[in-house]
Structure formats: structure tokens, C-alpha cells
Amino acid sequence: MLQFDHRHSIDLHFAIPVSLPGCLPGAEVVADWPLDARFSGRQTSVSEAAGAGPVDRMNKEHYPFRMFLLGPFALVDAGGRSVAPKSKKAQALLAMLALSTRGSRSRIWLRDKLWSDRSDDQAAASLRQALLDIHKSLGPARDLLIADKNTVWLDTDRLVLDTDLVIRTERSPDQVTDELLEGIDIRDPEFEDWLALERQNWYRRLDEGQVHDVFEPRQQPSRDVAKHSALLPLTGAPDTSSTGKSVDIASSGPYGRRGGGGWQWMMALLSPIVVGAGEGGQIAATRFQNLIAKAIIDGLGFGVTDLSFTLPDIEGNEQQISLPICLQLRLTFDGDMVLIELVMKHLINNRIHWLGSQAINRTQFERGEFGIAAALISQAVDQLAYFQEIQATDSRLSQDGLLIDAVNAIFRLSRDDLDNAERRLEEQIQYQPRSSTFAWLSFIRTFQVGQRFNALDAHLIEEAQAYARKALELDPQNSVSLALVGHVHSFLFGEYDYAANLFEKSIRLNPALPLGWDLYAMLHCYAGQPDKAVAMARWVQELGVYSPHKYYFDTTKCIAAALAGDHAAAIAAGEEALRTRPNFNSLLRYLASSHAHSNDLGGARHYLERLEAVEGDFSITAFRGSGYPLLDTGGGQILIDGLLKAGAKLR
Questions:
Q1: Number of domains in the chain
Q2: What is the pLDDT of residue 183?
Q3: How many other C-beta atoms lie within 10 A of the C-beta of residue 366?
Q4: 26-57: per-residue pLDDT in tens?
Q5: Which residue range forms the structural domain that includes residue 437?
Q6: If DSSP codes are grouped into helix, strand and coil, which group holds residue 650?
Q7: What was the pLDDT predicted at 622?
Q8: What GO terms describe the biological role, i.e. biological process, of this protein (predicted)?
Q9: 377, 406: one domain
Q10: Same domain, 377 and 476
């Protein structure tokens, strides 16, 4: 029997605007150290700078350390003496802890960000050395940094960050000219990705001046994006020839099939049309086109190429195109807005099969902050899946459609549908093994456990682990696989640190994937943070509003809201989802509980009876013994209390 251990520290990193780094614990914190000539030019307290008048100087015994993250990194004690380690990676480690939500990071996360090019043993040794360097530089105050075998903590209650003071003095973005962690040169791609995202979060904090419970995720800008084509940077792990060297994807041609578990070229993206924009608009179009390609490749397993051949070539080789449609992006810049249009049409006769559009702020779009416009990409992927399904007439296309058919079967949720999905995925592996195929097989195990179709035994867990490991081995850059494997590790194993890292990477690679955001929201539920889960679930509902699996996203909103105590919102989302899946037992549990908490005992008993019809042996004791995550959290107790109030059997 798998044992869930909730005693370890939960270290979550939120590479999204709802979780902002380095917030001080109280609003009355003041500082007697200069904000530096870059900000103020004199010693100023936070409250005084905000217009509250003079206040007492900072208690140096309580806040003896000051960390400068804007401009060159610095760490000084209450006497103004530098206690920063000399090693750049040790400095980066301190900054990463300071900018994390709780001042802590798992050792695995830190190793992956700072020593991603080394073996596990080498990276672990390097991390130990960096921690030793920090302790030496801190001297008698070495307890500012605490580490155990799993996690590293920074005592943020004894630390003041310059970034927090800048926010609290309400300075406008144009008054802050220094870059976050300016000049820090780590030369690790994982660290560079992290730093780029943190800088975006910092700019957002400057724009907003405070934390809002609103989900408008920022898109991480691609490095040197103007130098890349619209498609090639995001087409997955490179193929290798017998010599072991990377093979240029484009050399396969528009109709080429990649061997050894790659993909079949199936469709094309036309060159984007950009109207009324300068260089910034062209770069933004490239970024958005990259996201489209990534979403199609990871989500559907389709091959994507640019349409660099002429119309006669298409007509002469029409039989070689297995999916004779294409997508075209059109951007119209007008004043401070940009209209984004995405069209799916036939390659030959230009017949339009689908058209979606969204207007957003021009400045945000040019920064790479696509926000709700990412929902267009999600809709396009769903439309492509539907078109492929109805066009699947020959055997080759039917084989390529096995993955889509299996995914649709998974979300129908019945025992028979899950069995059928598993058979289709196994057939897909025989035809063409893909990372996402193994990830979906692993994901099925979470459904089987969650709906109690199978006993939670070692055999089932071993299969989930094996499939998840194989998925990441085949393609560690597949956003769908990363999200699914993250869910497996959070739901089945309670490995929240590791799972959060996978979700972050998935979202960074493909912010238009509703499933990635949705499963990340569920991790917050398991970890006892339902308020953050609600904010994320709200965004998922917008992103996946036209998804055929919308009920699944509504279910997450129902769960998160119920755990957060917002039972009206839970009932609204849950009953909407129940129209599509009337026997989904997870929904029935939360609806029974929320109706009971809302003092609608008739409605609570109605849903409890439906739950008992699906799970004939349902009881609180059996539910607690099922290994279901989150039951030991405060929200979990709310769920149990509601079920008891509804009349659920204790044993």
C-alpha cells in the first residue's frame, strides 16, 4: 500500500503572476537603509516614503540583513558589512530562495536550475559546496540559511529585500532603471529561463504595485527570437542520425516522416500576416506562431511545417498531405490595441473551417504577454482534433488519430472507456511510440485510483512510475507529458516539489495548454493552498471555455472553491460539470459537501445518494483510507465535515 507522507516541507514555485516573490510579512515594516541613489537618494522609511510621516527606524535585531536584487547582487548585515559569498552560483542560490514564495526550494530544484549540465552526483556535490560557501560568508549568522536532505530554507523573517521597498514606495516603472540581478552570469540554460521569468514577474509587480487575485499569465520571451524561424525552435527534441548528430527538422521536407518515434508531417502553418506594426509586432507574431506550433505538436502529435512551397506543388502532391488544412495567423495593430485572428482553412480551395479572434493590449502583446489570447490557440488545437477525427478515412490517418481517440475516451471517465483508451494507447505505441502516449498511460492510473476502479496496490503504482519515466526520457520538452507526469507525482506520490517543477516547465513551454494550468491548480489543492488554486482554476475556465473537456476544468474550479469555503462558487461550477458527467464521483462528493455547508440538506442528501449509487461502499473511513491527497489539509477537513453533515456513513 502506498503511504502518503504529508510531513515534509511543501516547496512550491509559482512561475505565474498570482505568486509574487519576496513579500514582507507585515505592512508596517520600515527600513533605515538607503534605497540607493538609484531610487531615492536619501535614507527613507517605507511608511514615510508613502506619505505616512516619520516613523521609528528599523529594528536591526529583527531585520539584520538586507539583500539587493536590483542591480548587482549584494547581501549586507545590520552594520553594512557585506556577507555575500564570492561564488556567483552561491549568490544566485540566495537570490532564488529570496524570490521564492516561502523562502525555500528543494535540493532537486536548485540542482536542476544551477547545474543542469552535470550528473546528479556532481550536481549534488556542487550544491553542497555552494551551501558551505554561503555558511562561511555568513559566519556566526549561518543559521540564516538552513538545509536538510530535501530542502533549503532562507529565514526571510530576518531579511529585507530592496524589491519590496520599491513596490511599497509606489515607484513607477520608468523610475526604476536597474535590472533584476544585473550582471549575474551563470551560463546555465535552466537558470537563464528562470531569471527571464522572474524579471517578467518583477516588471508586472512594478506595473501593478500590488498583488491581485487575477490570472493573466505572462509568456516567457524566447531568447534571440528574432533570429529564429516561426516554427523550428519549438518542434520538440531533435532527431538524431546514426552518427548521433542533430538532424535539421526542415530537411525532412513538408511531407517527411521522422523515424524512431517521431511524428508524421500532417499540416502546415502559413506565414503570418502583420498589418500596422513595426519590428515589435513582427517579433510578437513569431512568438505567437511558435506557441501555435508547440501546442499542436505536443497536444496532438501532429507534424508541423511552414508552407514554403508553391500552390502547384501542393496540387501536384495533394495525396502526400495527410491533413489537407492549414492555420494562418493575422495581426492587425491599431493604436494601443492588436486584433489577433487565427484561421483554419483548406490548403487548396481556401475554404474556412474555423475562425477565432481576440483583441488585447498592444504593449502587453509585444512584450509576449498573450494572456487570454492564448485561448485562441487552445481552441485551434481542439478544432484540429475534431477535423482530424471526422477526416480519418484511410488506415494511416486512423493510426495517427489513435492518440486523439484515446484522450477523448479517457475524459469520458467510465471504466470501459478507460480500458478502451488504454488499448488504443498501447496500439499507438506499437505504431509510433511517443512521449505523450506514455504520459497518458501513466495519467490513466490516477483516474483508476481516484475513482476507485482499481485497488491502490504496488503493481499499479509501479506501472504509473514506469510510464512517467519513459515519457520524460522520450521527450523532456513535451509540455503535455510534463503536465501529466507532474500530476502523477503530485496525486499518487505527494511529491509536490518535483511536480511543481514539472508544471512550471510545462507552462513555460506552452502557456496555451489548459490541462497544464488545470493540473497545477490541483497541486495547490493537494498542498493545502485552495485560494491560489481558485485563482488558477478561474484562468483555466477562460482558457478552455470551448474545450470538449470543459467539464474537467469546471470540476477543478468546484474542488478548489469547496476547499476554500466558497460553496456557492463550488456548487455553480460543479453542477455545470455534472451536466456532462452525471456519474463523476469526485464531483458528487464535493457537491454533497458544499450543499450541506450551505444548509441545503435536501440537496446534500440527493448528491450523497447519487455518490453511493456510484460507490456502493462509500464511507468516511474508506475515503480516508484510499490515499486521496488533501484530506489532511484544512480544506480536506471542510470536505469531510460537509459529507458528515450530509449524512455520509462514518464506516
A1: 3
A2: 85
A3: 20
A4: 322 222 233 333 233 323 332 333 333 332 33
A5: 399-511
A6: coil
A7: 85
A8: regulation of DNA-templated transcription
A9: no
A10: no
The CA distances from residue 136 to 75, 144, 502, 640, in Å, are: 14, 12, 33, 49
- Separation of alpha carbons 329 and 285, rounded Å: 8
**Closest Cα to residue 553, out of 587, 508, 585, 528?**
587
Q: Which parts of the chain register pLDDT below 70?
A: 1-63, 170-174, 207-266, 278-280, 306-323, 388-401, 450-458
The domain spanning residue 385 has which CATH number? 3.40.50.10610
Structural domain contains residue 577 = no
pLDDT at position 32 is 29
What pLDDT is stored for residue 219 in this prediction? 42
The Cα 160–Cα 63 span in angstroms is 7
User: What does the pLDDT read at residue 390?
Assistant: 61
Q: Grid coordinates standing for 481?
A: 507529458
Residue with cell 435536501: 602
Structure confidence by residue, pLDDT tens digits, 195-214: 888 887 787 777 665 433 44
Q: Which of 481, 511, 541 is the last residue of a domain?
A: 511
Give the pLDDT of residue 411. 83
Task: Give the pLDDT score at 557.
Answer: 95
Q: Is residue 24 part of a domain?
A: no
**What pLDDT does 509 receive?**
86
pTM above the 0.85 mark? no
Distances (CA, A) of 573 to 123, 413, 414: 45, 18, 21
Q: Evaluate whether residue 299 is within a structural domain.
A: yes
Residue 558: predicted pLDDT: 95
- Of the candidates 219, 199, 169, the residue with the CA atom closest to the CA atom of residue 20: 199
Nearest CA among 507, 450, 521 for reference residue 479: 507
At residue 227, the pLDDT reads 33
Instruction: Give pLDDT, residue 450.
Output: 61
Q: How far is CA 219 from the centre of its chain?
A: 11
Q: Which residues contact 422 (CB under 8 A, 6 or more apart)?
A: 406, 441, 444
**Exposure class string for 41-70: b at 16+ Cβ within 10 A, else e:** eeebbbbebeeeeeeeebeeeebbbbbbbb
Do residues 356 and 380 touch, judged by C-beta distance below 8 A? yes
Q: Identify whether the C-beta of residue 575 lies closer than 8 Å to the C-beta of residue 551.
A: no
Sign of torsion, CA 542 547 551 553?
negative
| Among candidate residues 344, 377, 392, the one where a domain is terminated | 392
Q: Are residues 293 and 421 in the same domain?
A: no
CATH code, domain with 175: 1.10.10.10
Q: What is the pLDDT of residues 342-382, one digit of tens each?
A: 888 877 777 788 888 888 888 888 877 777 788 888 888 88
Asked whether residue 272 falls in the same domain as residue 406, the answer is no
Cell readout for 157 is 523573517
CATH number at 434 reads: 1.25.40.10
Cα–Cα distance, 467 to 485 (Å, whole number) = 9
* Residue reference for cell 536597474: 178
Phi, psi of 307 (to 5 degrees): -90, 80
Same domain flag for 366 and 432 = no
Instruction: Confirm whether 386 is domain-assigned.
Output: yes
Q: Are residues 382 and 405 in the same domain?
A: no
Radius of gyration over every alpha carbon of the chain, rounded to an integer in angstroms: 26
Residue 155 CB neighbours (<10 A): 14
Q: What are phi and psi of 523, to 5 degrees?
A: -60, -40
At residue 92, the pLDDT reads 95
Beta bridge partners of 145: 154
**418 & 503 share domain:** yes
Side chain identity at 380, as an amino acid letter? A
In this structure, what C-alpha cell is assigned to residue 318? Answer: 495533394
Give me the half-sphere count of Cα atoms (radius 13 Å) on the Cβ side of residue 97.
27
> What is the pLDDT at residue 630?
87
CA neighbor of 534 nearest in space, from 223, 68, 269, 213: 213
